[in-house]
Amino acid sequence: MKIKSIRSTGSCCPAQWEGITDKNEAIYIRYRWGRLTIQRSKPNGTIRDAINEGKLLYSEQIGEECDGVIMLEEVLEIIEKKGL
Prior knowledge:
This protein is an alpha+beta fold. The chain is built from two helices and five strands. A five-stranded antiparallel beta sheet has the order 1-2-3-4-5.
C-alpha cells in the first residue's frame, strides 16, 4: 500500500490520521490506549467507510494502556515493516 496523501486529525489521545492510498482508498490510522489500528476503505470510499466498514489491516498493542502519542514516522515504519 502506498499512501498518496495523509493529514493529522489528532495529535494525541488519540493520535490519528486520515489519508488516501495510491488506489484511491481512504485510510484511517489511530493510536489510542497503546493500540495502533489501520483501516482501509474500498476504492473511492470515504474516511467514514474506512472507519465503519473498512478492512482492518493492522491492530496491535504496541504501547502502554494510557499511551496515545505516536509520531507518523513510527507508523509509516510499521506499515513498511509489516508490508501493508
